[in-house]
């Protein structure tokens, strides 16, 4: 009994802070989303969003771009994390610094960097053109490819570091045992390391997916107005058309979407941990 | 089952040499122990045989084939790790099937039968569907053993496989290892720092010290006739006493540092700088008035009761030696005793 009181007393300040910083705003948002123009309860904002092909298109773009970005981050992050886990500690430290370094500059600045690199005459299209891979000078700006490239660069550190934490804890002798049992390097990577790294890959992917679904700056700047994502649509509703209730409804839909994405992940990783 | 030949194996980590030219030839079907204190290079040598470490110089042959630069997965060996290294995400059955699956041995059905039969061999047939974490340490160890022998490897490598078990389980496993080896006849290399384990299990003991082979021989040979001070101290933790050996009409005699003279093993060569090897269990303590054919006087300094036996620390002049006596003779600290040593058990080695 005493323990429980003590626990509560210890957790109290934290719970209070969480309530003020998270529960209250979310409750406010939920409230706004179901209020009509004359302060009556209504689902009109949800119906408007979910019945308009324009908005459904935005949702679809957001989801598949996020899935693509997450998959690319995991596909690059896993081998990168494996290499980082297996090299000398001094070298690993440098790689970690190298990976974290971009996080220390603002996303806006980095995105502007990508705009320079991806635009017409920018380094990437220009090089591709000069090397003869494409027929003419072109721009990668305002394409979905640009969004994916920019977002992968933003999110890769999160995925890599989540996977690194798990791969570092995998006993090296498991790998050695696998090798002595006749599995080559790549077979060992696939059959031993990959499944054992799965909790990290799942956690990293989850992080990448949720950040990607709700990201605003990078997709808006690299994708432009013709390729809006959900976050941009919320921004427009809240700041341009001043439909706060509609913006709140979209936010609720985004939140529910992220929560839905979370459930299978939690189930999966829960099973892995037994 | 195959022969194993090591030829002048040198291993350096950076500027540190851990193996200084190890040459060793192991016959097919032998059970060989690599024995030595920690840091002597025995585990590194085992890892080199497994292919987990590259050699700096030297060559390695398994069944006559040069495998010096062959990857571990292509050496057709099996290794059992000290930590067992069971794959935690696979069931016992999948763990044991792993070597067969990776080497494409037989159909799925044949593999399953083989796995079941091997698990029965180590008395784990009923636990095939458990996950490794659901097993006790002893059971995990049996799984690791089953996994090592299932593919009938050319060489079986065991890296201190018994060191994580408690004393009782360990004795049981030793017996099982001997029986398994007799039944399967696998060429086995066993790393241990426990001299009793090495002596009781192996056909040949390879005693290593500081990256070199100190002595190679059968367990009896290496126990009875140590060639170096290190061997005699490490095997049976014998006492080494510096002596001068002279030949007399009655046979060789050794002068102890405090002046007493005792008869030593026939055939010992005269020398001014030799060491007398006295095993703890070869000495017999008797009350100080007893007349003995050969031996010396000493004073009991400490007594440590070990159950079946008692370890005495004896003081002789300014030296101390250790002695194991049956639990029945009780002397206390300060007692004067005579130490009886049969001359045949008083070995002389060159210092």
UniProtKB/TrEMBL annotation, chain A:
It is a multi-pass membrane protein. Residues 59-265 form the ABC transmembrane type-1 domain. Keywords: Cell membrane, Membrane, Transmembrane, Transmembrane helix, Transport. It is found in: Cell membrane. Coiled coil: none annotated. The chain crosses the membrane at residues 12-34, 54-81, 93-117, 145-168, 189-211, 246-266. Pfam families: BPD_transp_1. This is ABC transporter permease. It comes from Microvirga terricola.
From TrEMBL, chain B:
Keywords: ATP-binding, Nucleotide-binding, Transport. SMART domains: AAA (SM00382). It comes from the Bacteria. It holds the Pfam family ABC_tran. SUPFAM superfamilies: MOP-like, P-loop containing nucleoside triphosphate hydrolases. Residues 4-235 form the ABC transporter domain. One of its GO terms (molecular function) is ATP binding. Belongs to the ABC transporter superfamily. This is ABC transporter ATP-binding protein. It comes from Microvirga terricola. The lineage of its organism: Bacteria, Pseudomonadati, Pseudomonadota, Alphaproteobacteria, Hyphomicrobiales.
């Amino acid at each position: 009994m005493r323990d429980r009181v003590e626990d509560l007393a210890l957790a109290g300040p934290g719970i209070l802070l969480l309530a003020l910083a998270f529960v209250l705003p979310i409750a406010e948002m939920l409230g706004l989303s179901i209020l009509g123009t004359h302060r009556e309860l209504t689902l009109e904002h949800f119906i408007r969003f979910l019945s308009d092909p324009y908005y459904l298109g935005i949702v679809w773009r957001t989801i598949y771009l996020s899935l693509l970005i997450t998959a690319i981050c995991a596909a690059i992050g896993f081998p990168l994390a494996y290499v980082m886990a297996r090299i000398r500690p001094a070298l690993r430290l440098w790689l970690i610094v190298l990976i974290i370094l971009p996080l220390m500059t603002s996303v806006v600045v980095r995105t502007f960097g990508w705009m320079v690199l991806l635009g017409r005459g920018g380094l990437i299209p220009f090089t591709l053109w000069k090397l003869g891979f494409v027929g003419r000078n072109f721009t990668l700006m305002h394409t979905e490819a640009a969004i994916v490239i920019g977002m992968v660069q933003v999110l890769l550190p999160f995925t890599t570091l989540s996977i690194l934490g798990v791969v570092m804890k995998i006993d090296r002798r498991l790998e050695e045992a696998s090798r002595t049992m006749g599995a080559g390097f790549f077979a060992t990577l696939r059959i031993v390391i990959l499944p054992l790294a799965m909790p990290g890959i799942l956690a990293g992917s989850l992080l990448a997916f949720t950040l990607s679904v709700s990201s605003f700056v990078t997709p808006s700047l690299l994708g432009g107005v013709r390729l809006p994502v959900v976050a941009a649509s919320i921004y427009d509703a809240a700041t341009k058309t001043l439909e706060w209730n509609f913006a709140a409804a979209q936010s609720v839909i985004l939140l529910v979407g992220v929560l839905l994405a979370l459930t299978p992940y939690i189930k999966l990783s829960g099973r892995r941990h037994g | 089952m195959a022969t194993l030949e090591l030829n002048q194996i040198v291993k350096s980590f950076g500027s540190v040499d851990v193996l200084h030219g190890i040459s060793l030839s192991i016959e097919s079907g032998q059970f060989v122990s690599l024995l030595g204190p920690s840091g002597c290079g025995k585990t590194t040598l085992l890892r080199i045989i497994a292919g987990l470490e590259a050699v700096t110089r030297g060559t390695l042959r398994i069944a006559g084939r040069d495998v010096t630069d062959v990857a571990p997965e292509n050496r057709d060996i099996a290794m059992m790790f000290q930590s067992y290294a069971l794959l935690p995400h696979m069931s016992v059955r999948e763990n044991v099937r792993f070597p067969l699956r990776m080497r494409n041995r037989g159909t799925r059905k044949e593999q399953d039968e083989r796995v079941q039969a091997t698990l029965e061999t180590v008395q784990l047939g009923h636990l095939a569907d458990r996950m490794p974490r659901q097993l006790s340490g002893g059971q995990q160890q049996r799984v690791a053993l089953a996994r090592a022998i299932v593919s009938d490897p050319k060489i079986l490598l065991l890296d201190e496989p018994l060191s994580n078990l408690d004393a009782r389980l360990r004795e049981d496993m030793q017996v099982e290892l001997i029986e398994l080896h007799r039944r399967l006849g696998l060429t086995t290399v066993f790393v241990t720092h426990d001299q009793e384990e090495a002596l009781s299990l192996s056909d040949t003991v390879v005693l290593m010290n500081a990256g070199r082979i100190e002595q190679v021989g059968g367990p009896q040979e290496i126990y009875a006739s140590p060639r170096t001070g290190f061997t005699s101290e490490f095997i049976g933790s014998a006492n080494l006493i510096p002596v001068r050996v002279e030949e007399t009409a009655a046979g060789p005699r050794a002068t102890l540092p405090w002046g007493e003279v005792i008869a030593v093993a026939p055939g010992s060569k005269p020398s001014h700088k030799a060491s007398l090897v006295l095993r703890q269990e070869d000495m017999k303590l008797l009350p100080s008035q007893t007349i003995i054919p050969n031996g010396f006087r000493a004073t009991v300094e400490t007594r440590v009761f070990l159950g079946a036996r008692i370890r005495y620390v004896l003081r002789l002049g300014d030296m101390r030696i250790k002695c194991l006596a049956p639990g029945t003779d009780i002397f206390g600290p300060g007692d004067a005793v005579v130490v009886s040593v049969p001359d045949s058990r008083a070995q002389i080695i060159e210092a």
